Amino acid sequence: MAYQNSTIKSKNNPLTLDELHLNNEVRDKIDQLLEEFTYIDALNKLHIPVDNKILLHGHTGCGKTATAHAIGLALNKNVITIDLSGFISSRLGETGKNLAELFKRASTENAILFIDEFDFIGKLRDYDIKDSGEMKRLVNSLIQQVDYLADNSLLICATNHIDIIDTAILRRFQIKLNYELPSKDNLDRYYNRLLSSFPETITNINRTYGISYAEAKDLTYQQIKAHAIQLEKNKKHLIFMYAGFLINNLENQFSSEIGQERKDSISGYQLQNLNSTEALTHDKGENMIPQIAMKSKVENDLIDGFVFEITGEELLKIDKNMLSHYKRVQETTNLGTAVWVYVSRNIL
């Protein structure tokens, strides 16, 4: 097949029609469409064709693409989706043939053909004069494919700019559904559904109205992410620090006071000096040989230190400032406290 597969897309885990918060007029027409296809055999016996050409038009981000896939879900049909602007190749002579093949495929597979950015076909006047003849033939080819669409096939097209589509093509659609910006009530229901999948601790957001569902989703997720990040920054962690070097470093950075009641120890480790070439300079100008916790083969070995509380943001700062020789692991102290501790990277 000559067309590029990259222009044909499928949608995983589509929403149901009930999840789309459609207005009553749009939903009623879609329900009528579903009933016609459900009882298509009875209608065929009466020689009454079903309405199988639908145009979804209106504001961007208001659920046109989601509607096409929800209809496919309701009818248990696959949805073959193409972006018309990407589908029309630079070699226009091939596009008419590609369209014919695509309509045939949808009919053979009993699938829904969904053409997005359908208004691209109406931009004939934007083409150079040398291409206008080919574009007219392409429009005629599309009209022909729509006219000869099998009764049991379903064509759904979507556009944000219905005004630039050729009127000869518009007349072919029996159903035209207008997607307007959602009402405040519909947006509130949409916000509630989005927030229901997150913990209440991060769902306190500012709700904006007079926008599309897509815009509402973006704004919601931006605020949720900001809340989640701040929650992680403020999250409390217990850290075990040992040897004067590490304890002094922490106190200098965060002015943390270590009380004697937090004194503790960890078994199965021993302290070793790093070699002299890796010595550090203390804030007072003294050269210090840092010690590092190494896993010990002697079960009774232990290291003494202190346990105290810091925030997640402070913990990340310590990670950045620690020598490359250290890594942070989770251990349990001899008093039964789960803590983070910096140990040698060479520990298995």
From TrEMBL:
GO molecular function, one term: ATP binding
Keyword hit for Nucleotide-binding: yes
Keywords: ATP-binding, Nucleotide-binding
Gene3D superfamilies registered for this protein in UniProt: P-loop containing nucleotide triphosphate hydrolases (3.40.50.300)
Superkingdom of this protein's organism: Bacteria
InterPro entries linked: 26S_Proteasome_ATPase, AAA+_ATPase, ATPase_AAA_core, P-loop_NTPase
SUPFAM superfamilies, sorted: P-loop containing nucleoside triphosphate hydrolases
Domain AAA+ ATPase: 50-183
Family: Belongs to the AAA ATPase family.
Official protein name in the record: AAA family ATPase
